[in-house]
Amino acid sequence: MTAAQMTAQMRASRAGPLIGTVRAPGDKSISHRALILGALAHGVTEVEGLLEGDDVKATATAMAAFGAGVERLGAGRWRIEGRGAFVEPGDVIDCGNAGTGVRLIMGAAAGFELAATFTGDASLRGRPMNRVLKPLGEMGATWVCRAGGRLPLTLQGGSLNRIAYRLPEPSAQVKSAVLLAGLNTPGGVEVIEPEATRDHTERMLRAFGAGVEVSQEGSGRRILLPGGQTLAGTRVRVPGDPSSAAFPLVAALITAGSVVTVEGMLLNPLRIGLLDTLGEMGADLSVTNLREEGGETVADITARYSQLIGVDVPPERAPSMIDEYPILAVAAAFAQGPTVMRGIGEMRVKESDRIALMAAGLAACGVSVEEGPDSLTVMGASGRANHGVRGGARVTTHGDHRIAMSHLILGLAADEPVAVDQPGMIATSFPEFLALIRSLGGEVE
Fold first, then answer.
1. pLDDT tens figures, 402-416
2. Could you tell me which residues come within 8 angstroms of residue 135 by beta carbon, excluding any fewer than 6 positions away?
3. 363 and 302: one domain?
4. What is the pTM of this model?
5. Which spans in 286-432 are helix H?
6. Is 374 a residue of the active site?
7. Which of 27, 55, 323, 400 is catalytic?
């Protein structure tokens, strides 16, 4: 995607069916963790399939600033030489737009006797860090920051105390920050989560040689990380990101005549809430070539154009698909009847207020929506050509990559083209988006 294409606006139009086989970019969550744990480990970590979006590159740069040797060997292939500890960086750590990156890095840095200053772009500087700072503060870390726990923020770590922390709300980022801080806490840490959240940190800690004990506690889990553990460098193969794979899969489901296969997609049971929901909506999805790679389950997913129906999405499913609600809302726009999404208040504190922006964008495209404090209801159209989704809008994205990509997918199946502003932010998570959609026959310019 060239600089010119990534600046002013991007527009998607309805063309023919989408046909083909593609591979989703590497999972962003796993990519961040591979770099951070590689930097914390002793020895060499080699990573294949790393997502080379702006967010992950910012984490790679940060790991080098904390003393690790970080080298790109080729497309998606990276080598990290860890020192077993972080050193105090000589400059400000700029995490760009990476909310996951900055929160996990702060957790890791808190375990060492160092001071580090973190900043980011305008969007990241507007996002509160209090949920991560609270447990780190209880462990003994201190900081100075803007009001509301916002960046820029200077963190002072080291000499942490053991903590048994119950998450006030489901958050894999907060859980992971506490676990990473616990690696250098003499007594270790314990995290109790009310609902199970994505468990990539626990899985990857084991891959790097750490002992992690996980037990069920009601509908949630208790994670115990004993102190005094040493990580060893390893090999990591990053599977395809289900949050990115969602875009070509939904595009196929809503575009007549389409058949699209996404190879090598992560099927972690705590990340497949969207597939479960689409299945309930009547989506024609098939799973083939199921296999294990790097401790994670992956498979090839094929989506075929389907007549979707609206559903009520269980609130407890939100942690397993929180990043996929924008593209789910697009699928819901082409379904018959209402789709109700509740318990999604977390969407309001992402890169943007995603509930508000999806509601506004869909409404501008002729879709009836109802917005609540932590809910979104999309009234699917039916009975007219192309299910009655008009399109024809220029959508304001506030620089949010998922808002932009979701509305471009809508434009592929709507009656009139859909344009989005600030498409440059797509590169934070899916730099190959434009080329991938075009390779399937999509009309995006």
1. 999 999 999 999 999
2. 163, 165, 174, 177, 178, 181
3. yes
4. 0.84
5. 325-333, 354-364, 401-413
6. no
7. 323
